[in-house]
């Protein structure tokens, strides 16, 4: 019955895919990134119900005024910015410590290739973080969520169908 358990995650993905279009974008995203005041207020009402959200809206407008002069940077520009080097080095140290903790040694690999596997996994994770962050900046979270859920549901349906055949 493991195939039924596996198909359960596909069912959850399908349900999320069906309901995702009915949820609004994040109000701060609509106001700060897109500049859509009416959409922001509409999203607030849809998320929080009827009410007076002028204080929250005013706070977001203040945040927008504060960040108006700042440039929104992509991932590669952030990596070139010297002021974020301490945070980046801390994250890199954490990533490397996770890779060197010995998890690759439990994967039944030859002892001589374990350091290379650990290094390869760390480099792959670092590249995927940069690549995925760039994709999220370019396309937005909502489209990527739709695509991910649709792809996950499709693959699990195909897997379940192939198991039944």
Brief sketch in words of this structure:
The protein has helices spanning 2-19, 27-33, 37-48, 54-66, 75-80, 85-99, 114-139, 141-164. With 165 residues, the protein is mostly helical.
Provide structural commentary:
It is a single chain. This protein has 165 residues and is mainly α. The protein is 73% helix and 0% strand. It contains eight helices and no strands. Helix 1 (2-19) runs antiparallel to helix 8 and helix 2 (27-33) runs antiparallel to helix 3 (37-48). The model has no long low-confidence stretch (mean pLDDT 78). One of its GO terms (molecular function) is D-glucose transmembrane transporter activity. Keywords: Membrane, Sugar transport, Transmembrane, Transmembrane helix, Transport. Residues 1-165 form the Major facilitator superfamily (MFS) profile domain. The chain crosses the membrane at residues 6-24, 113-136, 143-164. InterPro entries: GLUT (IPR045263), MFS_dom (IPR020846), MFS_sugar_transport-like (IPR005828), MFS_trans_sf (IPR036259).
């Amino acid at each position: 019955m493991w195939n039924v358990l596996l198909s359960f995650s596909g069912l959850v993905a399908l349900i999320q895919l069906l309901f995702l279009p009915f949820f609004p974008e994040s109000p701060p995203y609509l106001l700060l990134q897109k500049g859509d005041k009416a959409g922001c207020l509409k999203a607030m009402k849809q998320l929080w119900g009827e009410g007076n959200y002028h204080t929250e809206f005013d706070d977001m407008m203040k945040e927008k005024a504060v960040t108006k002069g700042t440039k929104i940077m992509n991932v590669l520009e952030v990596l070139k910015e010297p002021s974020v080097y301490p945070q980046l080095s801390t994250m890199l140290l954490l990533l490397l410590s996770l890779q060197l903790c010995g998890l690759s040694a439990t994967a039944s690999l030859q002892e001589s290739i374990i350091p290379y596997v650990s290094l390869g996994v760390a480099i792959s994770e670092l590249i995927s973080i940069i690549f995925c962050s760039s994709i999220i900046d370019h396309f937005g979270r909502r489209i990527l969520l739709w695509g991910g859920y649709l792809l996950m549901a499709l693959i699990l349906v195909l897997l379940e169908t192939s198991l039944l055949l």
